[in-house]
Design brief:
The protein contains 3 helices and 5 strands. By secondary structure, it is an alpha+beta fold. The protein has one domain (about 5-139). Strands 1, 2, 3, 4 and 5 form a 5-stranded antiparallel β-sheet that branches. The longest helix has 15 residues, at about 125-139. The protein starts with 5 loop residues before the first helix and ends with a helix.
Length: about 140
């Protein structure tokens, strides 16, 4: 398949917001299949035009800092191609108080982004790094 197109990346980036259990995109959440990430479970596909992507892993961290991320791989000839994993992270969700507090502390208060500030736990940057590290270990 090659690298995802701009349109496919845009759709994946849009869909990462539905990882948040409080946010639904087109009426549904995105969730990976915990028992077998490569198997379809009704909630773990992203479609962009004719291309389907399987959600291999997703992370929603609502209790700590509002981080959301997901990793997807294209489905080519009905087979999930895990050699082409794309990771997407959600930006600021204005309806999530933890997300807003984290962004305020790390950007406005200039806390440096690595250490969690008062009351939000670890930073979203640390959550993103941990997510990417986990995906490298799995792939």
């Amino acid at each position: 398949m090659g690298n995802p197109t701009y349109e496919q990346c845009n759709e994946i980036s849009y869909r990462v917001y539905s990882v948040d259990n409080n946010d639904k995109v087109d009426g549904k959440n995105i969730a990976y299949n915990q028992k077998n990430p490569l198997e379809f479970n009704g909630q773990n596909e992203v479609h962009s035009g004719d291309q389907k992507f399987r959600v291999l892993y997703s992370s929603d961290n609502p209790d700590s800092n509002g981080f959301q991320g997901m990793a997807v791989a294209p489905i080519v000839n009905d087979v999930v191609d895990t050699s082409q994993v794309t990771i997407a992270y959600a930006g600021t969700n204005q309806s999530d108080p933890k997300d807003l507090l984290t962004d305020t502390e790390s950007v406005v208060a200039n806390s440096g982004g690595f250490a969690g500030g008062s009351g939000v736990g670890e930073s979203q940057l640390k959550s993103a790094q941990d997510f990417a590290k986990c995906m490298r270990e799995v792939a």
